[in-house]
Amino acid sequence: MQIPKDVVIQFIRSKIGGPQADQAHQELPDSVDTDRDAGLLSTFGVDPKDLVGAASGGGAAGGLKGKLGL
Asked: pTM for the whole thing?
């Protein structure tokens, strides 16, 4: 699943905290592919399944579904 970087950063900031989000902002591509970038996401403490769940309305990060236009 393709997710805009700013949405991923918001997820990281809400679940893990600012320092990890700041580092992720520097290292992640503009469009994060949860399959391709799974290893990189894990370095920031993000399980791609949790990110996809939140993005598709799983509620974990509240509001990501609307930002993705889903």
From this structure: 0.74
